[in-house]
Amino acid sequence: MFSFFKKFRNQKLTAGFNKMRSQTFQSRKNWRAGFSLIEMLVVVSIFTIVTAVVLANLPSFRDKSSLDLVAQEIAIQIRGAQTYAMSTLYDTNPNALETSLFAYAIVLPDGVDKQSFKLRYTDPPSDSSSYCVVDQTGVKEAYVIKGNFEIGKVCQEGVTNPSSISICFKRLNGQLWPTNSNPANYSIIVWSKVDNTKRRYVNVASNGQIYVSNNEPLVSSCI
Fold it and tell me: Which parts pass through the membrane (predicted)?
């Protein structure tokens, strides 16, 4: 009788083990079978929606990135004018005397082309004026804005709707030198020619700070 119970117990344990192994095998089999049709359709639908959203926003993302780069480039060139004024020890203007170079001026825009601006020389100071006077014949460097972007508007504090501004930097310390009695605070709007609501503000403060803002012009009227 003891032998019978021992045999029964062994059969029960074996049956339990076989059942567990069968369940494990079935689970592995189901896992290897992959997605069901419904699961596959759900995954494909989610992937399609995500792809559509990404593709729809891609042009806007590219425009934003390009606009940021253009605004940063203009800010860099303005900083370059300041650097020239700080580092130039002698006159490089072929139209002037060696001792006459007093400052550099970045002119934005230069003329009617809103996609161009220039780094110009300045006339030497005279007894009749203590303000910066831009030399209209001497050009140090010329710049072109490429793509669908342009200088939409330029502003100087205290000046109403100027068509162009000249930002002058004195030798040898590179401080701002105003072109008139108004404070030397400037804002330049760079925008998309396709949609001018997409814009950046390049700001130049009278203390020499130069920075780009998404929505805050330094000159409050520059909107």
Answer: 37-58
